[in-house]
Write a structure and sequence with these properties.
single chain, pigment binding, Lipocalin_CS, Lipocln_cytosolic_FA-bd_dom, 46% strand, mainly beta
């Protein structure tokens, strides 16, 4: 069995994850409870992407607030080299198990669809995003494994590993780790990315 949380980071893991063809069909968490999913999630591992500056983003957390009628707000924060950056936006449940985030950069709004593949709401979550590029007939995959605390307990790790071992969509070798050590999470500057157009989450 491949254990996700004990791997060694390698340079090859820093590349965006892109495959040929359109996005595959995925099955979201059955009977997804949008309200129970809200609150703070800590990113344990992720597929690398530009929004978190490849492998550099540390101490990453996502906060979801559900206000009713399947709408709410989202805030994502990470730290790079002592600078804490965050982005905020609107949140809605576009279909069962899939959330749409709407973030505005430099006056331009961008939507992203995040599908929750599996979660127990209290300890762990596995999230997924896919974007298709028809001109090149390729799709880009992003995935996150999250915890309600900065450390995932053994039972949750086992559930996550079992899911990944059975998944034909996710590749556990593509994930890169996060760092919640005091040194990595120390920030002397805080800035918002909302006014910067060339960042994408």
């Amino acid at each position: 069995m491949y254990y996700l949380f004990v791997f060694t980071l390698i340079a090859a893991a820093s590349a965006e994850v892109i495959y040929n063809g359109p996005c595959p069909d995925v099955q979201p968490k059955e009977n997804f409870d949008f309200s129970a999913y809200q609150g703070t999630w800590y990113e344990m591992v992720r597929y690398p992407h530009a929004g978190e500056e490849g492998v550099k983003g540390k101490c990453t957390l996502i906060e979801y607030y559900v206000y009713g009628n399947n709408n709410g707000r989202v805030k994502k924060t990470h730290i790079v080299d002592g600078v804490q950056t965050y982005v905020e936006g609107d949140l809605s449940l576009s279909r069962p198990g899939t959330m749409m985030t709407t973030l505005t950069f430099g006056g331009v709004s961008k939507n992203a669809f995040i599908t929750v593949l599996d979660t127990d709401y209290s300890n762990y979550a596995i999230a997924y995003n896919c974007k298709y590029f028809p001109d090149g007939d390729k799709h880009q995959v992003r995935s996150w494994i999250m915890s309600r605390t900065t450390r995932l307990d053994e039972n949750s790790r086992a559930l996550v590993n079992n899911y990944l071992n059975e998944s034909i969509i996710l590749d556990s070798n593509k994930y890169i780790g996060n760092d919640y050590s005091p040194a990595a999470c120390q920030a002397s500057v805080v800035k918002s990315l909302t006014d910067l157009q060339n960042q994408y989450y």
